[in-house]
Amino acid sequence: MSYVLLVDDDVELCEMLIEYLGTEGFMVDAVHDGESGTQQALSGKYDVVVLDVMLPGINGFEALQRIRAASQTPVLMLTARGDDVDRIVGLEMGSDDYLPKPCNPRELVARLRAILRRTQQAATSGPEALPETFCVGDIEVHPASRRAIRGHDILSLTSTEYNLLEVLICNAGRVVTKEDLSKQALSRKLARYDRSIDMHVSKLRRKLGAGLDGQPLIQTVRGIGYQFTGE
To answer: Best exposed site among 49, 66, 199, 214 by fewest CB in 10 Å?
Structure first.
């Protein structure tokens, strides 16, 4: 059973989602302000956090920033419908996915299950089913522990950033389309006008740093996707 923390000041919506998610096999706790949401998210109890942008006290972005400073627990942001700025800012700050409000509960369940499949893959597959490491240049990816290392430094990646890096490393030297990245790293089809892959890759690039030639390790292939070039 998966534990979900719902952080939203709409009490009626929370009650409805708690009931619906409960029928889908989730255990859900709800809090209604950013401060409480941050404290609960950092408790280590929850598998995923659903975080609204508009909250009393500290808003969802500040709550996300505090969570990311201490934890890589997956976070799905709820944003105002049609507000691309909120979505982009959330992805830039480390959210794993987003949904516009009002959201369809069935789609929320699908997104949560996709996030949980990604983050629990190593545990459910078992280490014997996974290679020990993938290495390209001075980048190492360890699937069993879901760690990425450059040189002697462990990279601080969100679950989505790690998934993207693993897919790109496994296909080093080859172009991976955005559609394939979305299916393999986000566990969903790429929607029209969806820029979440671009935002996650942009953030991953910054965390990886440049290669020996000063160029990004992940190259954009315009109109198609991305390629990991290594050193």
So the answer is: 214
